[in-house]
Structure formats: structure tokens, C-alpha cells
Amino acid sequence: MKQLLFKLRLMNEQLAVIAGFVLLASVAVTILDIVLRRFGLSLGGTDEISGYAMAISTSWGISYALTNLAHVRIDLLRAQCASRGRALFDAIAILALSGTALVIAYRTWSVLSKTIKYHSTANTPLETPLWIPQSLWFAGWIWFALSAVIVLVGVVVFVFQGRFDDVDQVAGLRNEA
User: Fold this and answer.
1) CA distances from 11 to 2, 18, 68, 170 (A)
2) Fewer CB within 10 Å, N- or C-terminus of the chain?
3) Buried (b) or exposed (e) across 27-46, using 16+ Cβ within 10 A?
4) Is 45 left (phi over 0), alpha (psi -120 to 50) or beta?
5) β-bridge mates for residue 77, sequence order
6) Cα–Cα distance between 67 and 54 in angstroms, integer?
């Protein structure tokens, strides 16, 4: 289980780098468009493209945050507990996060399926077929839900084995004092 969770973390780190490059490319296109406007030219659609880049990189980047313990949590009670109690709070937190990720991933399909059904395009000069950015966005949410469920399974296994330090490593807090 630890090996699977380690590989998941490495994969999410690689995906986060790709998401970062998507954002950097979006910034570069936006800067280029701003410079071209000084000469009376424009690429057009940079706001649309940057919106797609933000949505796509966010949906993929949250898996990185998950496996690197970067999600925000309010842990007043957890901090007062011994390792078993902290592991229980971590299990509850990852259960809630997994449930939320599954619901969001499920709901994003209805957005994408309607886009595909109606052949929707952006109401912009680019007239982007919306299934393209929405497919990448949807895939990111599916990946996040899958990552969260894998972490949840790992936490449950570790809790039942009494491996509370392992729970802390995969679902605890980063840089806890």
C-alpha cells in the first residue's frame, strides 16, 4: 500500500508540473497579446484561453495538493490527540474529501455530456468547441476523485493495522509543530 501511495504522489507531482506549464503558457500568450496591442494588433481570445488553462490546471493540481498534504484543514481537536486520535481525524477528513471529490467528478460529467450532446461552442470570436477544454477539466476531476479514493483506502488499511504514523504521512498535516 505504501508503494502505491508513493507512486501516486510521484505521478501527481509530474501532473502538477504539466499543469504549471499550462499556466505558464497561458501567461506567455497573455503577455504576448498585451505587447502586440501596443502595435495595434491582438491575438484575441487570451482571456478565454487563460480561463480554460486555469480550470484545467486547477482540476489536475488539486490531486498534487492532496498527496502532498497541502489541503486546508481546521485541526483544533486533532492537535490535542495522541496518534490514534489524530489518525481517526485524518480518516474522517479523507473520507469527507473523497466523498466530495466523487460528487464533484460525477456532476462534472453532466456538464460535459450536455456540451457534447448540443455541440456547444464558446460564445466568443474563437468559437472553441467546449468539449475540448471541458474534457480536460473533467479528466482532472476524475483523477482527483480516484486519487482521493486511493488515499482513503490506504488510510483505512493503515488504521486497521494500527499504523498511525503511516496515516499521518499520507493524510496528516504537513510541517506540524
Assistant:
1) 14, 11, 11, 15
2) C
3) eebbeebeeeeeeeeeeebb
4) left
5) none
6) 20
Model confidence at 13: pLDDT above 90: yes
pLDDT in tens, 55-102: 999 999 999 999 999 988 777 888 888 999 999 999 999 999 999 999
Handedness of CA 160, 163, 164, 170 (dihedral sign): negative
pTM recorded for the entire structure? 0.90
Taking a C-beta distance cutoff of 8 angstroms, is the pair 142, 152 a contact? Answer: no
Q: How many other CB atoms sit within 10 Å of the CB of residue 68?
A: 13
Distance CA 95, CA 87 (A): 12
User: Distance (Å, rounded) from C-alpha 66 to C-alpha 94?
Assistant: 9
Place of cell 483506502: 153
Gyration radius (Cα) of the chain, Å: 20
Residue located via cell numbers 481537536: 77
Nearest to 53 by CA among 78, 69, 79, 29: 29
Amino acid at 107: R
> 3-class DSSP state for residue 129?
strand
